[in-house]
Amino acid sequence: MQKEFEDKLKAFKAYMQDIEYLSSALSALYWDARVCSPKNGLHFRGEVLGFLSSEMYKRQTSSKMESFIDYFQSLKEADEITKAMTDRARREYERSMLIPKERYRAYVVAVSDSEAAWELAKDEANYSLFRPHLAKLLAFNREFIEYWGYEDSKYDKLLDYYEPGMTVEKLDTLFTELKKAVITLLDRIKSSPKKIDNTFLRNDYPIDVQRRLCDCVLKRMGYDLDAGRVDVSVHPFTVTLGNNDVRITTHYYSKEFQSALFSCIHEGGHAIYEQNISEKLTGTMLKTGASMGIHESQSRLYENILGRSRAFWTSFYPETQEVFPQFKDVSLDDFYRGINAVQPSLIRIEADELTYSLHIIIRYELEKAIFDGGVSAEELPALWNEKYREYLGIEPQNDAEGILQDMHWSSGNFGYFPSYALGNLYGAQFFHTLKKDMPDIAQRIVKGDFSSLNDWLKSHIHQHGAVYLPEELVKKVTGEELTVKYFIDYLNNKYSDIYGF
Amino acid sequence: MQKEFEDKLKAFKAYMQDIEYLSSALSALYWDARVCSPKNGLHFRGEVLGFLSSEMYKRQTSSKMESFIDYFQSLKEADEITKAMTDRARREYERSMLIPKERYRAYVVAVSDSEAAWELAKDEANYSLFRPHLAKLLAFNREFIEYWGYEDSKYDKLLDYYEPGMTVEKLDTLFTELKKAVITLLDRIKSSPKKIDNTFLRNDYPIDVQRRLCDCVLKRMGYDLDAGRVDVSVHPFTVTLGNNDVRITTHYYSKEFQSALFSCIHEGGHAIYEQNISEKLTGTMLKTGASMGIHESQSRLYENILGRSRAFWTSFYPETQEVFPQFKDVSLDDFYRGINAVQPSLIRIEADELTYSLHIIIRYELEKAIFDGGVSAEELPALWNEKYREYLGIEPQNDAEGILQDMHWSSGNFGYFPSYALGNLYGAQFFHTLKKDMPDIAQRIVKGDFSSLNDWLKSHIHQHGAVYLPEELVKKVTGEELTVKYFIDYLNNKYSDIYGF
Questions:
Q1: Class of the B168-499 domain?
Q2: Best to test chain A binding among B16, B39, B48, B120 (most A CBs inside 10 Å)
Q3: DSSP codes, B409-458
């Protein structure tokens, strides 16, 4: 019995390893398409991605896979990792096998074309260039939801993919409370007599100097550049190409100090998570984040809770002033308040930490309207603009600063956006626990010591990869279920300090 | 019967198309490993390459492939392309199926490790870091030759891979005549009273200016940058990642004018060939060069016959002088003689056009000694140095400028080097025919018109891809079999003009 188990496990791991190799090739070709490919090569690249995805799909839905799942599910004595690996394979199996192979392959080609169309459409601020592609992807996803079947909400099926166990019902509860708290705080800030001047953040910042500062910050944070690299793409992203190869991208704007730097810190957070997952998980398909929400908890913890903290800038401000003399006469306190100023704006990735959640809630409500309310690609821009007017009091002047700003939908990632807001909630809850274990964390950051922080995150979260489901992980790390409480406390403390109420 | 043929052909092409997709993914990951990968990611990348190669191997040696080959070989009425596609598949099938799958997979991993070791060894000018890897690759290749079987010469089996139909016997004849002619010319040049001063080619050439000049030359030559890109790697190379995606690399040296520019023109020649192959050949595995020798004929035709011609520089010299003021007082004539000066040297890729062939003949003789004479990795550096002393009268001072200078062996490309010298022969023979069709070609180049040249090459050579075997192609284009005559005539004319004898 033990011998049979070991042989089967070895075979299962070898089988999963091949799927990981395919996944690595797909990630590398994806990265290349976004960062390097000459434009005329993108169509053929889409076909290659389609082929490799269908090879992966074949393996994830084969009768061999089915028999591995059956065997390991029936065992009582399997260890934690084998169980998690089997569960994950089963989820993929059930999700994939219900989609006819040719439809899935066609979908991957459509996604690749859509991504290229989106880049062009965004450049030209012209939604109509992207609309037919988006309509096609929506139709594919609606078709897939029918294959999978659903209970109360169609959108649940998409949410569950990025955040296992997440539902419209749970999100409605969390987001209602969050929206209320954010809007209350926003009102207090608007009526506060204290106004923050952060015009010093819009000036001339030579791109090569920005690049050097970003590299320096990333390195000090703990991002390993011997196992990663930083490139430029239209929209920043992180991708793992394989063991010891986790790459990030950013986008430099010569007139904006914050954009590239904070996107680097954000993506760096994702990358440190990936770089710190235990190598033991190679060949299990668990060498990845626990969920997109947990992934975002790491990126947003680095970007906001750390990257926009007084402690962080006490450490980095002197050298920032050195390379950017325009900050010479700006005090650390003014700088700190400047990067935390609240100002409703149109672009999600440039939003302040407070209004950011409203950008996500808008996208969540739109996706719910698409999949549970039958809203079409044609109706979206008007709805988008309406919600921006209603929640943030401002309206896009063109599609590039409106509905075309994010690449997610062009890649078919419907149901992803809520992860960012969940990331804020998870992140604040994790950090609350971390502070209990390490009350002097702020002093350590002031000294430029990120290793205690990284060690804590690695041992409690990173190393485990996807061994635990998000709800198990949160419970395990913090002893509680997910709650909005810690994030709202964090926001209240931070902004009452900054705006003095 | 016709219906059956069409159905089978459709299925065969779909099958070959998948092999092309795998080949495209392999090329992309190879390019990335050389140009982008962080160093710690290279080992896992090797495993991914091993996996994809073995997937390709599986398809090339499947019983399905065998039955396609059997079916199409038995047909009399098959068209030229179907025949060529079947022949090529059969060659690959016979070559691959004799190697045990696991041995081949292990070989691909060994190659990837060897390439990484070579880079390090070259950096440190330390052959002993590379030797065990080379020994391993030699052992693999010797083992493979035994699987394949051989008649007179083991080395023939390696030559035939890059140059179908080529043998040690034929090369001995061609290279003996070539060696004699080159050495005779070299002696006349050495004893000529005319000495050429080209010290103006070693000065300070800012790398960003070099880069702009290279891009400009490549664009004007006809390299399509919307379907390609130029990057930096240790050793320049060209790779086709798929339709409309043919990339080249180079290496800039701030003190050398010639190195990056002529390597760009060389790789640009390869790339123009690949970019001009008919799209009709997609999914036939014939959308590639006819052979490595034919490929080199295009790169060397651009690099030398054109790139080092008076006509070429009449066109490009004014703008070169503009961006590099150090040439202000150098006349076009002196510049032309300077870039054609003959001076025995150690580095193949920086050799002048005349002594270049001796670098190749040395490598050819060493490879023959390895595979037919049983010479070991340990003995190679001494033999290398000895031959340089004997043929060129100079000797490497360290391994980096000796045996470690080329990456070919680190990639397991034994039998490749002769292609470069064959390229010279094919190229001169093709150009001789082109000049008969287009006697005013020099005047066209002077005017910066490369399109008549490219059109001729495209219609006679490029578009056909690998539909014809090299010997068929040479016969078809020039009406003759391959001969050294035209290359020797070309060299005699060129150097008697430059050195005035």
A1: mainly alpha
A2: B48
A3: GGGT-TT-THHHHHHHHHHHHHHHHHHHH-TTHHHHHHTT--HHHHHHHH
Contacts of A381 (CB under 8 A, 6+ apart): A127, A399, A402, A403
pLDDT tens-digit series, residues A305-319: 999 999 999 999 999
Cα separation, B68 vs A172, in Å, equals: 58
Rounded Cα distance between B361 and B182, Å, is: 11
3-state secondary structure of A239: strand
Q: Is A371 exposed, middle or buried (0-12, 13-18, 19+ CB in 10 A)?
A: buried
Chain A residues with CB under 8 Å of B27 CB are none
Q: Give the number of A-B residue pairs with CB atoms closer than 8 Å.
A: 103
Q: Look-up: residue for tokens 């193949």?
A: B348
Contact B389, B216 (CB under 8 A): no
* Residue A481, helix vs strand vs coil: coil
Task: Tell if the CB–CB gap between A243 and B48 is shorter than 8 Å.
Answer: no
What does the block give as tokens for B29?
């990951």
Burial-class residue B323 by CB neighbours within 10 Å (0-12, 13-18, 19+). middle
Chain-chain contact of B43 with A243 (C-beta, under 8 angstroms)? yes
- Specify whether the backbone of A359 is left (phi greater than 0), alpha (psi in -120 to 50) or beta: alpha
C-alpha to C-alpha distance for A448 and B206, rounded to whole angstroms: 37
Question: CA A361 to CA A157: how far, in whole Å?
Answer: 18
Q: Structural domain boundaries of chain B?
A: 2-149, 168-499
Query: For A114-153, b where at least 16 C-beta lie within 10 A, e where not — what string?
Result: bbbbbbebbeeeebebbbebbebbbebbeebbeebeeeeb
pTM to 2 decimal places: 0.89
Tokens 């007082």 sit on residue: B329
Q: For residue B168, count other CB atoms closer than 10 A to its CB.
A: 20
Sign, Cα dihedral of B217, B221, B225, B230: negative
Instruction: Report ipTM (2 d.p.).
Output: 0.88
Query: For residues A255 and A199, is the Cβ–Cβ distance under 8 A?
Result: no
Tell me: the pLDDT tens digits for A210-258? 999 999 999 999 999 999 999 999 889 999 999 999 999 999 999 999 9
DSSP B276: T
What stretch of H or E contains A93?
helix A80-97
CB contact under 8 A, B44 and A242: yes
Contacts of B247 in chain A (CB under 8 A): 38
Tokens of A90: 């089963």
Q: Are A278 and A463 in contact (CB under 8 A)?
A: yes
Amino acid at B25: A
Nearest residue of chain B to residue A35 (CA atoms): B36
Picking from A15, A18, A34, A37 by the largest number of B CB atoms within 10 A of its own CB, the best residue to mutate is A37
pLDDT, tens digit (0-9, with 9 covering 90-100), for B240-283: 999 999 999 999 999 999 999 999 999 999 999 999 999 999 99
